[in-house]
Fold GCK domain-containing protein.
Amino acid sequence: MPEKKRVGIQAISEASQEVWWNGIHALFPTKGELSIDPPKEGGTEMDEDDQVFERFSDFMKEGGCKESFSALVDCLEDT
């Protein structure tokens, strides 16, 4: 693959990932960003992306896709 094309594809991929994460952060803010979620005392500090992914996972496990999402998580944990 020509270098110019590879660099272009990489730039598009990185931009898409940033847009995706920004959307996920907007839909599933960290617990500290929500006024209804009091901060937990004595809890372990999680990185912001981990907190957002945890909220996303909780949402997916409770929604209409819970069986598919659980199967995906199980598959990823097995690898």
Observations:
- The chain has a mean pLDDT of 80.
- Helices lie at 3-27, 48-62, 66-78.
- The two ends are 30 Å apart (CA to CA).
